[in-house]
Task: structure prediction
Amino acid sequence: MFAKPFRVKSNTAIKGSDRRKLKADLSAAFPLLSADELSELVPNKEELNVLKSYAHKGDAVTVYVLHKNPVFFEVDKKLFPTVYVLWRYPALLPAFKTWPPVLQKLTGGADLMLPGVVVPSCGLPDVKQGDSCAVTLVNNRAPVAVGTAAVSTEQMHCLGMKGRGVCILHTYMDYLWAFGDKSGPPSLPDAESEAHGENGEECEISDKEEEEVDKCVEEQHSPEETVTDQAQSCFEELSLVEQDEEKGEKNNEKEEETQDEQKTPQEVMDAMLLQCFLHALKSKVKKSELPLLTSTFLRNHMFSCCPSGKQLDIKKSSYKKLSKFLQTMEQRYNIVRVKELTKGVESIVEVDWKNPELRSFSFPEDTDVESTPLPDGEEGEILYHPPEITTLYSVSARLEPLFLNANKRKGATLHPAEVRSIVTEYVKDNELVDENNKNYVTINPTLCDCLLEKSEYQEVVSLKWDDLFSRTLGRMQECYQAVFPGQPPIVKKGHIEPIDITVASRGSNKKVTLMKNLEVYGLDPAVVASVLQHRVQASSVLQPVPGAKDKVLVQIQGNQIQQVGKLLLDHYQIPRKYIQGLEKAPKGGKKK
Result:
């Protein structure tokens, strides 16, 4: 997590209430700490800072700093001690022992693999999956890394000590350690090393180190895990140069990805904005189109050059406004000339086609240069077909006797036509049609138990066919079946949730349009948000739906119900009965 530089958002002194809460949280998380030890780590009067930061992968991390040393950090509401604290209290966390050469790999961002774990004579510490744990080195109890157990101790033995053992979050010599006084780990000999003698132990493990390191780092090179220069130099001293050279080629292939990870979201958006700008000028804009409205240039040209799967949003860039971005392009690169031809309306009046920046620009591989932008902004979108939704009925326990002859047990789902057919066949097989009036069906004991209320047992002796069918369906569990093209049918209980569209107020006079349940109909909320953003030229945000798993709420600025309705009804072909809230669309005023 801290193998690369992290970005500090704020660094403030802790409040009194937060100090008390931190002490209570630490007492609950680390019951081995006594009251005096807690007071040493979270003193009442000494300055304790709260540092809010973002790791290089975007994870939000809260770090608590005492005497300029980070003492604890919090990730996903879980507290972890730093190596500075563990050097003072080495028994605070259960620890796994490994070989000294492995530390260099851990510092580079790798996890501890089970082949690299040294099993002591007393056995491995008892941990469950997700428990906090430390990593120590042979001959020294001072922890050098902190993380969480990838699997439980029992599973480690079941796996034959193969696979991932500890997911590393923080290590000695990483950037969180470097935020402190950069002191080294103390020498704390363990019981085994004292019993066997350090010299003998060193001689005994020296021949095994390379073999064990080969095993434990074999699976540790994922696209996000690269080895630092410092780790490589240490491994050269350990005669592992050949292995690092083989890994080096893979690391070079991932260099571009790691560079993107180090950029902030704002820097990534700035780079994408420049790429789309140059792409649009080189492949979309013709000299005959000039002068070209800047808004038209953005909507019809720049948006269509956005890489697939990504969303261009100027408000998330450092420029915030298109006019400021174009002004920068004009002053810094002299690529375009922007002029206000009418009051308040800017246009691109000139483009320098021979500009070296523009001429040297090459088209990215993940965009289609020859594609033409669609007027509604649905460029690059996969063709969508709405699901076929059918109402079904499930056999309940009460109605099971009525469907036994058709071999339909409790829980079987049927179409309404199948229900009518089975009930009709049951009536005819049992000769229950009224001889005097064939519009009525005589009630036998089975129908009485299945369809009548207790108060009707003595009064109702026959029912009309329509009443018979409606009572049968009314006592069955309603379900629905959704069939998407090329996929097996999906059957779920209850009514299908409609796509819900509402308008909410934000602030004094701002309105936003909210959409949910798009996933039920196979629509990707991110794609819908992107298309709407292009159509209405307003910002959109994706938010999780409170209390619902795997559901996302789409929020777009302004009352956009009319545009949402057109998109769902005309483009996606969703039937109107499955859309709720279209009546809230603003009514058009009188044209002057």
